[in-house]
Structures are given as C-alpha cells and as structure tokens.
Design a protein that fits this description.
259 residues, alpha/beta, Rossmann fold, 6-stranded mixed β-sheet, 6 helices, 24% helix, binds adenosine-5'-triphosphate, binds magnesium ion, ABC_transporter-like_ATP-bd, nucleotide-binding, AAA+_ATPase, Metal ABC transporter ATP-binding protein, transport
Length: 259
C-alpha cells in the first residue's frame, strides 16, 4: 500500500471543477487529487456527480470552470492516454456485435499499438490481463454469453491490458457476485502493489476497503469529505493491513455518508 506522503506528485489534479449537463449544474467546484501510488475512493449517493467527475477527468465531459491536470499536464493538452486505464460504469444496454473475450481485452491495447498490429508484447499483456481476472479458460468465448460479473471482469482486463500507471474505475463492483468481487479485489491489490495509482467510484467500500488510502465524498456536486475512508480508521490505516474483513464477506459496509 502507498505511504500517504504529501510529497508524491499528483497523477490527477482537479481544481474548482464545474460542469453542467444540459441546464443542470452537476459539478459545483470539485477539488480532487490522486497522488502517485494512491488508491482514492470517490463516494456519494446516486446522482451526486461521481461519474460526471471521472468522465470529466478522461475528457468525456467538458468543464465550465476550473482545471484538470493528468500527470502534471493540462487535460486539454494531455495525449498520453496509454498511461490511463478506464473502466466505465456498467450499463444494462446490450452490446451489438458479439466479440470474444480476447478481442475485447485486446482493444485495451490499441493506444499502445504503433504499427497497426499487435506485437508479441501486446499479446502477452492481453493474455496476462485475461489470466488476472480468472477468465483464461474462456478467452475464446463470446462476451455475450457471460454473466454481468464476468462481463465486468472483461472490462477490467481490457483496462489492465494497457498496463496503465493510472486506473480509473466507475463502480467496478456494481452487480458483481461475491466470487467476482474477490477476484477483482485481489487483481487490484496486485496492481497497487506494482505501483499503479487508482481512482475508484464506489457505493460501498466492501472488499476493497483495505486497499483504500483516502476517500472523497460528493454530495450534490460538492466535496463534503476528503480524508480517511469513513469507518476505516484505526488499525485499518496501517501499512500491510490487507486482510478481508468479516463484514466484507457478506453485507456491504455502510458508511452513512452516502445517503
Ligand atoms: N446526459 C445527461 N444529461 C442531463 N443530466 C445528466 C446526464 N447524465 C447525468 N445527469 C445528471 O447529472 C447528475 C449527476 O450524475 P452522475 O451520473 O454523475 O451521478 P453519479 O454520482 O455517478 O450517480 P450514480 O451513483 O447513480 O452512478 C444527476 O443528477 C444526473 O441526473
Ligand atoms: Mg455513476
């Protein structure tokens, strides 16, 4: 786990961000920092602006005010997208053409391709990512035949295939069964151990709680908390603390800050 040293440079720096969707202000002056090696959870009730905040970071939502920097570069000038892995919030919309797991995960490698085909290193990274999420024996299967939780694992493998320095995931645990949640938690633990910085949108901390260095809570497009994860103080803040909690095995951890 990353030491919470303030000296580490930010990989995401959002300052005073405002954004509107239609006429409706959705971000109303958001500050959000993720430093190198940090795992930050972005929490908040439905509609509080979490997805809009991460989508503004990756350039899918324009700001009406404020600034965003990625790896110290203004987002508008940032081109190094191979350093960033993004897992969007899952929607129920069915995808059109059924692709295989391997094809979908390979698409995560596109930003690294230089000559229009996958190199040996690309292919190895794809197989490694598929293996990490526990789908190696199903790589040739169509994604349309997968459960929701398995599908989510494919999207995460796609983000991991680019071997990103910064991983942004929007509710990776939503609708995912406990077995898949445990696989995702251990996958993430490995990434974090390897130095990856992570921004996670979550409803509950759940099995990811031991990994999280800091929590930022949004309410109505404003930050109402930025600090230790709610109810995760004490021994949980100590380095090397990575056991799975008794409460993580069953019901999700309720923070009370989210409703
Ligand atoms: N395309 C859109 N057009 C207009 N308003 C939108 C659009 N997308 C989202 N909103 C509104 O913006 C607000 C913030 O939405 P956002 O998706 O960022 O919330 P969230 O915190 O991610 O919620 P959830 O927990 O449900 O995913 C909500 O009030 C939502 O209704
Ligand atoms: Mg959302």
């Amino acid at each position: 786990m990353a030491a919470p040293t303030p000296e580490r440079e930010p990989v995401i720096s959002v300052r005073g961000a405002t954004a509107a969707l239609g006429a409706r202000p959705v971000l109303r002056g958001v500050d959000l920092t993720v430093r190198r090696g940090e795992v930050v959870a972005l929490l908040g009730a439905n509609g509080s602006g979490k997805s809009t905040a991460v989508r503004s970071v990756i350039g899918q939502v324009p700001l009406t005010g404020g600034t965003i920097e990625l790896f110290g570069t203004d987002r508008k000038r940032f081109r190094d997208w191979a350093r960033v892995g993004y897992v969007p919030q899952r929607t129920t919309a069915a995808s059109g053409v059924p692709a295989t797991i391997r094809e979908v995960v390979s698409s995560g490698r596109l930003s690294r391709r230089r000559f229009g085909w996958l190199t040996k290193a690309d292919k190895a990274a794809v197989e490694r990512a598929i293996d990490l999420v526990g789908l190696a024996d199903r790589a040739k299967d169509s994604v349309s035949a997968l459960s929701g939780g398995q599908h989510q694992r494919v999207l995460i493998a796609r983000a991991l295939a680019s071997e990103p320095e910064l991983l942004i995931m929007d509710e990776p645990m939503a609708g995912v069964d406990l077995a898949s949640q445990e696989i995702l938690a251990s996958t993430l633990r490995e990434q974090v151990a390897g130095g990856t910085s992570v921004l996670l949108v979550l409803h509950e901390l759940g099995p990811l709680e031991p990994l999280i260095d800091r929590a930022v809570v949004l309410r109505d497009g404003c930050v109402v908390h930025d600090g230790p994860p709610p109810e995760a103080l004490g021994q949980h803040a100590l380095p090397g603390h990575d056991h799975v909690h008794p409460h993580a095995a069953g019901e999700p951890l309720r923070t009370g800050l989210l409703t």
